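FAQ: What does the model actually see?

It sees only this:
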Amino acid sequence: MIARIWHGYTNHENADAYETLLRHEIFTGIANRNIKGYKDIQLLRRDINDEVEFITIMWFESIDAIKTFAGNDYEKAVVPDKARALLKRFDKISQHYELVSDE
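And it is asked to produce this:
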């Protein structure tokens, strides 16, 4: 299992709108793609001074499944235009980690 981890940052005024966009449009759209090997997505949120940090953790069975989601340049962040409009900044590259234990 591989975790795809990505960070995005908004200002406080856009944080709730961004979270709503993620949960009700973007995550649903990803699930509706029915990507073989895609397992789940998790969302983390925290306030940091003058901005709000969001972390997504996507779970895939393999790099090939990630490539189906993100393309051959699979490390490149996938950030739809609607999300970019609400973000102050974001990781251009996603990090990928192999799950070695779930205990």
